[in-house]
Amino acid sequence: MRAEFVKWQDELDGRLRSAEGLDLRRAKEVFPFWPFKWSLGALILMMIAHERRHVFQAREVRQNPSFPQQ
């Protein structure tokens, strides 16, 4: 699972680097399940917040006294 997460982070990093120079406010994207157009910049910020939340949750789980220690 960790390897998949790291792979996703590397892919995301590559995509963000390839967006360098784009006007992130003007570039638009539509979610297939949401009828709104979002700026690419807003989507990137949401993705970062979402990933940050996952990392926070993983840390909470690992700090739980009942989590197996290696």
State the assembly state of the protein chains.
Answer: single chain
Please mark out the parts with pLDDT under 50 across 5 or more consecutive residues, or reply none: none
Instruction: Give the tally of β-strands.
Output: 2
Major β-sheet profile:
2 strands, antiparallel
Mean pLDDT rating? 85
What is the CA-based Rg, rounded?
16 Å
The end-to-end span amounts to 17 Å
Question: What is the overall shape?
Answer: elongated
Question: From the helix content, strand content and strand pairing, which structural class follows?
Answer: mainly alpha
The amount of helix comes to 55-70%
Tally of helical segments: 2
Strand content: 5-15%
Strand neighbour order, sheet with most strands: 1-2
Q: What is the succession of H and E elements? A: HEEH
How would you sum up this structure in a few lines?
The chain is built from two helices and two strands. It has 70 residues and is mainly alpha-helical. The longest helix is centred in the C-terminal third of the chain and has 24 residues, at 40-63.
Give short descriptive properties of this protein.
mainly alpha
Question: What does the model show?
Answer:
By secondary structure, this protein is mainly alpha-helical. It has a domain at 16-61. 59% of the residues lie in helices and 9% in strands. The protein has two helices and two strands, in the order αββα. The chain has helices at residues 2-18, 40-63; strands at residues 28-30, 37-39. A two-stranded antiparallel sheet has the order 1-2. Strand 1 (28-30) and strand 2 form a beta hairpin. The longest helix has 24 residues, at 40-63.
